[in-house]
Amino acid sequence: MSKNNKNVLITSVLIVILIGLLIAAGVKSGDLNFSVLFSQILGVIIIFAFFIMFLLLIKKLAPQNQPPQVQVEMNTGIEKDFKIVPTTSNITFKDVAGINEVKEELIEIVDFLKNPEKYRSFGINLPKGVLLVGPPGVGKTLIAKALAGEAGVPFFYQSGSSFVQMYVGVGAKRVRDLFSKAKAMAPSIIFIDEIDAIGKARGNLRNDEREATLNQLLTEMDGFEGSEGVIVIGATNKVELLDEALLRPGRFDRRIFVELPGLQDRIEILKVHLKNKPFKGNLENIAKMTVGFSGAALASLVNEASIHALKQGKPYVEESDFYAVKDKVLMGKKRLNTYSSTEKEILSYYQAAKAVIASWLGVDFERISLVKDDFKEEDKEIISKTELMSKIETLLAGRVAVEEKFNEKYSNAHKDIKKARELAIKMIQDYGMGDRIVGDEGEIAKILDEAYKETKVLYEANKEIIERAYELMQKNEILHLEDIKKIKDEIF
Ligand code: ADP
What we know:
CATH architecture of the largest domain: 3-Layer(aba) Sandwich
CATH class of the largest domain: Alpha Beta
Mean pLDDT: 83
Bound molecules: adenosine-5'-diphosphate
Structural class: alpha/beta
Strand content: 5-15%
Number of strands: 10
Shape: elongated
Number of helices: 19
Low-confidence stretches: 60-81
Order of helices and strands: HHHHEHEHHEHHEHEHEHHEHHEEHHHEH
Strand order of the largest sheet: 2-3-4-1-5
């Protein structure tokens, strides 16, 4: 029964008792006058009606001490009734395929959650905040759940947007509640999906509610020690949009990048999702036709293929089922970029050339994949003009190589050209590396022209290595610096 109903019931019982008493008093004194009695009863009812209205008014004016809490359904983000409750996760690292590169860091976090005392006794504070950065569907939520499952700790899921409400103060209150619950159940994991909904950089447009919520999040994160055993995991695909304050030491200072799966990773992910299904065929073939698919897209591909096989009355899911439903899955995921075989050739040659020229010029990288390169950020205070030119030449290497090989210019070069131009602008306008101390557009173009010419020379000199690297890139969709070194050793 709600509180309001209870009040009404109690008041009604009191009214009935009072009327009873009045009648009893009238009977006792022998002068039961009905018109007097009636006006007395009316008076009592009116007084009580005022009393109830007064109570309701006070209740409405008083600050809500129980704000609506949100229970967000796992995966869907749909708000049901308001309540922050943890779940237990039975997902483990076995369920997350192809994340070998980040696994070590995750294992360390699990150990911390399992044995916080061990770390406490050595005065070690492990990260309070971990940011999982990557495009949608690559398994960020899955990783967070696997952490909770491996460590056997409660898992609090909240979506960033569920904090940002219309009413000022509600979001902040929810953040406070979330942390106090998680701390009470420590060790535990708080997972905030789409954290950019709260943590977007505070631009000119002010949003008081979001700001209040963000400030509360910052306060909460500062307010507990890492050794308390609560780890806050945030997921975003736009780390560059996040407010600087969130990324400071002691907050989300650890970042784990989760990328679209490469060829080998896709094979592993397909294996996980086909685990309990009868399958006949070659997984590598399927993985090869799914460049650009996220883990989530692969999961739905497996599902659709199984339905297809079932409808055909087959005892197995086969490769042909995957080919039959691929387009359907793609249509459902409009933003997915998959590549035709020609596009894959162009990209492979483009990226292979960048890898080879970078290794020639000593521009540091670990690996370059079909869809992403991994050039190290410069952490030097002073950079020379030669180093900057090498960077620009590396950025132009893909364009030059593809133009020479395919005798055509393609739009995929736009990001690198933009970066090259930005570097050239800095060189000319900030670093005074042109003919004049502060040069104009003409000088910027001159730097880029020079770099372009030099890159053509470098391309001719490295053509054989690039061709070999291209073959490897087509096969594996990734090139490591080691691979380039090996090719060079074989040729020379
Ligand atoms: P994100 O949080 O990055 O948007 P999710 O974790 O919600 O992605 O992934 C959605 C689903 O896709 C998962 O529940 C899982 O079925 C599948 N998936 C994604 N990545 C992987 C992976 N690496 N291994 C296995 N399945 C994956």
